[in-house]
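Summary for the steering committee. One of the milestones for this cycle was to obtain a three-dimensional model of the protein with zinc ion bound, which we needed before selecting residues for the alanine scan. The sequence and ligand used are listed below.
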Amino acid sequence: MSWLSNFVRPKIRALVKKSENTNNFWVKCNGCEQMVYHKDLKETLSVCPTCDYHMKMPARQRINWVLDEGTIKEINIPQTVIDPLKFKDNKKYTDRLKVSKEKSKNEDAIIVASGQIGGNNAVVAALDFDFMGGSMGVAVGEGFLEAAKEAVSLNVPLIVFTASGGARMQEGIFSLMQLPRTVIAVNKLKENNIPYIVILTDPTTGGVSASFAMLGDITYAEPGALIGFAGPRVIQSTVNETLPEGFQTSEYLLDHGMIDDVVSRKNLKAVISNTIMHLVNNISKERSYSH
Ligand SMILES: [Zn+2]
């Protein structure tokens, strides 16, 4: 018995533990179902090397990748009301927030930072799908407003990466109020001649797609992203008809003139940087003509 418990059991535990750890090194691709080694994914920016499927990129990784090294300055988002409705379903909303904060190491579902993209000054806001599905409550609205305010005060373009299931249901009407709030913030950008570039990533739906996500001066999307208001299953069961192939994907939206281009992640940073250069140069030319 002692031999069994002192020798065999620890050995078996060690074996099981080892295999669990090894599993963390492999990520299953949702596109081709192949296992991809995590180090390879780091090099390919979380794009599957076999089928080019663009996996979700956490907001912090997104900021660190798109902004030039050494230029990143994270912008604090003012504290907002937490749990305005004292909401509880099978779990308290405050408990859900706590879990998401620990998991994502973020305060809410948006990160805002200023810095440079390929040497061009910009403010970047990235939504975090890992934080309660990137849903937009008061804190995300506030984060977007802060990003717009910063872009106006620095007189630099605002670049936004969307990834969201929609409104934060636990905040009810307060969540819906963020739609007009963010739209007003976009108008402020336009009034101040600040270029506003949106990059739609998988998925961008609900209240986010019904507000600031679709108002960019230039709108790009990553390949294969789901972009729409309601999900395809909901629409299919409502209209009771089979939806066309590729409905609500980036490519479908491009074909129907809803977005400006579909850009692979590996080219995205260069494309954004080029776009900023064109827009900023044209704006400064326009300004000098008008004087
Ligand atoms: Zn794949």
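Key point for the committee: Residues 29, 31-32, 34, 48, 50-51, 53 surround zinc ion (CB under 6 Å).
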